[in-house]
Specification:
This protein is of the alpha+beta class. The protein has one domain: START domain (Alpha-D-Glucose-1,6-Bisphosphate, Chain A, domain 4, 2-Layer Sandwich), CATH 3.30.530. It is 23% helix and 37% strand. Strands 1-7-6-5-4-3-2 form a seven-stranded antiparallel beta sheet. A hairpin with a 5-residue loop joins strand 6 and strand 7. It starts with 9 loop residues before the first strand and ends with a helix.
Length: 169
């Protein structure tokens, strides 16, 4: 690049208080049987949750749209850079094919503004009332519209997670 100009990027930061202890929220993100129950926006299912939770490991997660939306499937990989149990997860997310090979998000109909890789940082903080302050930060989107699309989807996922954890008592 000769101009020295770099494209502006936008990060999605979402903080939620979840009425469950850190240990349960952590497990909801790291146990494939639990991820399968909440991953994906409202109405979506998660038929694939192959978890490889270790630094350098890669999990494969898939979501399926409801039949009335065409039943399409999207797959993602999460490649872990840093794991501090009960405190912090850092991973890079890629859109992927069913075998976990990285693909261009545009090739599966995603809007412009989603980069090939999206670094994520998840933090888990215990609250005095026994709940968890949970924050997810996604880095590097090139469009503020895509940030809001991601925020909406993550909010729906976290609604499903919170409902799941509320019934676990």
């Amino acid at each position: 690049m000769t101009s020295g100009h770099t494209a502006e990027t936008f990060d999605m930061v979402l903080t939620r208080t979840i009425d469950a202890p850190v240990s349960e929220v952590w497990k909801a993100w790291t146990d494939g049987d639990l991820v399968r129950q909440w991953w994906g926006p409202s109405g979506f299912t998660a038929p694939v949750t192959e978890m490889d939770l270790r630094e350098g490991g890669t999990s494969l997660v898939g979501m399926r749209a409801p039949d009335e939306m065409g039943g399409f499937e999207h797959f993602h990989t999460w490649t872990y850079q840093k794991i501090v149990p009960g405190e912090r997860l850092e991973f890079v997310q890629h859109f992927a094919d069913q075998q976990g090979n990285a693909i261009d998000p545009a090739s599966v109909g995603m809007p412009p503004g989603i980069p090939m890789q999206v670094p994520h940082v998840l933090t888990f903080e215990s609250r005095p009332d026994g709940g968890t302050d949970f924050t997810v930060t996604e880095f590097g989107y090139t469009s503020p519209d895509v940030v809001e699309l991601s925020r909406a989807g993550m909010n729906e996922c976290l609604d499903k997670m919170a409902a799941l954890l509320a019934t676990a008592d």
